[in-house]
């Protein structure tokens, strides 16, 4: 008996959405999660949204989406609602529970399908909370893990249009080699590194203290930079354990911690007390109100919060009028 082999060809999210009608696309774009999922595959870099694009650049495989979406849409379910929910799952946090409150009946039915596939976890079928599983989150990223070798690979390639499955090589001397011609990816690498050389097929950059701290000042976290380098690692780096050199990871984290050595708190300064007793009376009052930020009894100086300043000031005036 001959067995038929069926090979399913996957396309990225952008190609899948091209097949939808304009009416469905207009409805989809009303949902923030859909906009983010689509925006991360656009070829041009938008400055206002680069922080969101930086680590949401994971194409959704059409085969995984179409497996449920097309069948359920044929059963009368809302295609826009189903796709929007799948996009939201791709942005969910592993281990966090989410409420089913506000879901329509068709979406609750679709949720049970996902539960059967192992994409969400519910303690009971009628439970009002559900947990997205790792499979649901990594499904949108197109990432598969080889348990035998411990290596990870990207199912559909890194960025639409580049044809690269992984293009970044990071050395222990903080050199970054990006084997790509994508202007978008080069611009993203430049957000946290200093560009040194650019050749037809490769860009050489240097991760420095200044470049990382500048990125942090612009709203990028150290964990996001590390995640970016790891998820776009070249196949050569994927053979390493760990993928990213520990010295690079630790140093980027330390550079971020440097900015947290000082914390700024607004306040109102009180000084020039005529006696230690006056200082202690006002300080105790501020402590009692819970508005004392800082004190230096030796120099008779203290700082209170702005919202507590008026109350402390009134108390001090009453205190002075009685003495």
Produce a short descriptive summary.
The protein is of the alpha+beta class and 323 residues long.
Protein described:
The chain has 323 residues and is an alpha+beta fold. The chain has helices spanning 13-18, 22-28, 32-39, 50-54, 62-74, 79-90, 105-117, 134-141, 183-190, 209-217, 222-231, 235-238, 246-258, 276-289, 306-321, and strands at 98-99, 120-121, 129-132, 143-146, 151-154, 168-170, 175-178, 194-198, 203-206, 268-270, 292-296, 301-304. The protein has three domains: 13-139, no CATH class; 157-258, no CATH class; 268-321, 2-Layer Sandwich (Alpha-Beta Plaits), CATH 3.30.70.2610. It is built from 15 helices and twelve strands. The strands form four sheets. A four-stranded antiparallel beta sheet has the order 6-7-9-8, with helices on one face. It has a three-stranded antiparallel beta sheet with strand order 1-3-2. It has a three-stranded antiparallel beta sheet with strand order 10-12-11. Strand 6 (168-170) and strand 7 (175-178) form a beta hairpin. The protein is flat, with a radius of gyration of 28 Å.
């Amino acid at each position: 008996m001959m067995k038929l082999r069926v090979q399913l060809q996957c396309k990225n999210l952008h190609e899948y959405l091209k097949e939808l009608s304009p009416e469905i696309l207009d409805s989809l774009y009303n949902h923030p999660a859909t906009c983010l999922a689509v925006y991360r595959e656009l070829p041009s870099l938008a400055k206002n949204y680069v922080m969101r694009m930086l680590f949401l650049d994971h194409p959704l495989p059409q085969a995984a989406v179409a497996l449920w979406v097309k069948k359920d849409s044929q059963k009368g379910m809302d295609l826009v609602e189903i796709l929007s929910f799948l996009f939201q799952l791709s942005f969910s946090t592993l281990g966090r529970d989410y409420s089913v409150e506000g879901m329509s009946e068709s979406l609750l039915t679709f949720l049970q399908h996902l539960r059967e596939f192992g994409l969400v976890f519910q303690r009971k079928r009628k439970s009002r909370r559900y947990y997205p599983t790792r499979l649901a989150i990594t499904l949108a990223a197109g990432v598969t893990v080889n348990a035998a070798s411990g290596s990870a690979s990207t199912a559909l390639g890194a960025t639409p249009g580049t044809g690269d499955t992984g293009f970044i090589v990071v050395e222990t001397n903080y050199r970054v080699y990006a084997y790509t011609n994508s202007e978008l990816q080069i611009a993203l690498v430049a957000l946290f590194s200093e560009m040194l050389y650019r050749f037809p097929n490769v860009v050489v950059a240097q991760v420095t203290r200044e470049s990382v701290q500048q990125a942090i000042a612009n709203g990028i976290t150290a964990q996001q930079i590390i995640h970016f380098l790891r998820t776009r690692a070249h196949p050569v780096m994927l053979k390493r354990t760990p993928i990213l050199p520990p010295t690079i990871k630790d140093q980027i984290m330390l550079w971020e911690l440097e900015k947290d050595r000082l914390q700024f708190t607004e306040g109102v300064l009180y000084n020039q007390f005529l006696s230690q007793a006056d200082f202690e009376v006002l300080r105790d009052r501020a402590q009692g109100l819970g508005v004392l930020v800082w004190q230096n009894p030796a120099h008779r100086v203290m700082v209170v919060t702005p919202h507590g300043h008026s109350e402390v000031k009134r108390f001090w005036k009453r205190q002075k009028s009685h003495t």
